[in-house]
Write a structure and sequence with these properties.
Blueprint lengths: L2 H10 L1 H12 L9 H13 L3 E5 L3 H7 L24 H7 L12 E6 L8 E6 L20 E2 L2 E3 L3 H20 L8 E6 L7 H8 L7 E3 L7 E4 L2 E10 L9 E2 L2 E2 L4 H20 L14 E10 L9 E10 L6 H18 L1 H5 L3 E8 L9 H12 L6 E3 L6 H7 L4 E3 L14 E3 H19 L8
Parallel strand pairs: 3-6, 3-7, 7-16, 8-15
Antiparallel strand pairs: 1-2, 2-6, 4-5, 5-17, 9-13, 9-14, 10-11, 12-13
């Protein structure tokens, strides 16, 4: 049997692929509650004849192996609740009293290995089973796990981010198998937990030494090829104040009550200065042409306790994406510390009661040449099949960073769906795009795994 037969089978059995995705979307698998989804994936892999491994990530071992990039586990109900001034550590997690909710008990990774006949290149297909919260639930116009199809779109949490990509890979392998296609190289399917706001699922597989000649991270790219992605940082600043009522704010000519809110403008200016300074840096890089070097978001603010008392504290939280061209994520973290230190120095009150900056999550950027073999191979596949074969720099962080940076595995991001649908009410995926991804993956897997190992083509 041939590649042609597998592609024909996928086209004939399109409804089966749609039903398979719908079944997965109907299984809630929010971050921290991935077990049911993972059991379903394990059953699908066994049906493909894969050797299946189900193992919970080892938090202490990850921190020991990768102290600069390992993160605290997260849970959608307890998300980003343990800030750190320098780096997260296993002892700090244990001392926090939060280890009972921030852990991987009952949250295993699932890895399925489909052994090749020998001599071909191996391939990792990586996807995360966890999805973000459905909140605000009242903003959905349909059940978040209904997998309802309307006007060619399947709706539901995780359709784009990223059950569509994960199921496209599984169905591609299904049709290759049913068509009798023999692959020479091994295919390793990784369904990981806690990609959202941690990345520890994939990081633990890297720690365990699971490797291949290349990897595809099946995040939503609208079936385009991304070879690199920015770094990311979630940060917070705590601004102090002195609470006083209007009658006690002034003692004669001396100001006694200081609102944290009135100290905020200088802090905001210092943060925006980081963005301005980084975006003045110019690089001659065609891959990232047209993309900002640094993007700062101030997303949430809370403070004070009563309208007629100066706010005794204030917490401002946000995030940032940055090009790997400007340095490491640790360099960017230090830039935040320096900026806040300068803001403290410029403000008479803050010199004595300083603003504190801390972090909630950090991602390293990934940069690879656009002509690496896996990118060139997928670009050629898409070109032959009428897709977009342009190799691009991705606009979002994802688990590719661990496979490439920590694992030394060349990788690309490729999958159906769009990042614009991620994390929002009424998330959807274009069904036609999902079906097209199955065909693209069938063709790529066939060609990649039947090319001799060690080939640079």
């Amino acid at each position: 049997m041939s590649l042609h037969d597998a592609l024909a089978l996928a086209q004939q059995e399109a409804q089966r692929s749609i039903d398979a995705l719908a079944a997965l979307v109907r299984i809630p698998s929010l971050t921290g509650e991935e077990a049911a989804g993972q059991l379903h994936i394990a059953d699908l892999l066994r049906g493909l004849g894969a050797e299946v491994d189900i193992t919970e990530p080892d938090v202490a071992a990850m921190f020991e192996a990768f102290p600069h990039i390992a993160q605290y586990p997260t849970h959608w109900q307890h998300d980003l609740i343990l800030p750190y001034a320098d780096l997260p550590t296993a002892p700090a997690l244990e001392a926090s009293g939060l280890a009972d909710v921030l852990n991987y008990r009952g949250r295993p990774n699932v890895v399925g290995v489909l052994k090749g006949s020998g001599g071909g290149r191996s391939l990792i297909l990586n996807g995360h089973i966890d999805t973000v919260t459905i909140e605000p639930s009242e903003a959905w116009t349909r059940d978040p796990h209904c997998a309802e199809i309307e006007a060619g779109r399947m709706y539901g949490r995780g359709t784009s981010d990223m059950k569509g990509g994960l199921m496209a890979a599984l169905m591609a392998l299904r049709f290759l198998r049913e068509a009798g296609v023999i692959l020479q190289g091994d295919v390793i399917v990784q369904s990981v937990v806690n990609e959202e706001h941690a990345g520890n699922g994939t990081l633990d597989l890297v720690r365990r030494g699971i490797t291949a000649d290349a990897a595809i991270v099946l995040e939503p790219t609208e079936n385009q090829v991304f070879v690199s992605h920015p770094g990311g940082l979630y940060w917070q600043v705590a601004v102090p104040g002195i609470p006083r009522s209007p009658g006690a704010r002034w003692q004669g000519d001396t100001q006694d009550g200081v609102s944290a809110i009135e100290r905020l403008p200088g802090v905001i200016d210092a943060l925006l200065e980081i963005e301005r300074d980084y975006n003045q840096i110019r690089f001659n890089d065609l891959l990232e042409q047209g993309q900002a070097t640094f993007s700062l978001v101030m997303g949430k603010i809370a403070g004070g306790h009563y309208e007629t008392v100066t706010a005794g504290d204030l917490l401002l939280k946000g995030g940032a994406y940055f090009s790997g061209r400007i340095g490491s994520v640790q360099d960017v973290m230090q830039r935040f510390r320096s900026a806040i230190a300068s803001a403290n120095k410029r403000d008479r009150f803050l010199r004595c009661e300083p603003v504190a900056v801390s972090f909630l999550h950090h991602d390293d950027a990934t940069r690879q040449p656009p002509d690496i073999a896996v990118a060139a191979g997928m670009a050629a596949t898409l070109g032959h099949r009428g897709g977009d074969g342009t190799v691009r720099h991705g606009p979002f962080c994802c688990d590719m960073r661990h496979l490439v940076n920590q694992g030394g595995i060349p990788g690309i991001i490729f999958g159906p769906g769009t990042i614009s649908q991620a994390h929002k009410p009424d998330e959807y995926i274009e069904v036609a795009e999902y079906l097209a991804a199955i065909g693209h993956l069938i063709a790529f897997i066939h060609d990649w795994c039947n090319t001799p190992s060690g080939s640079q083509a």
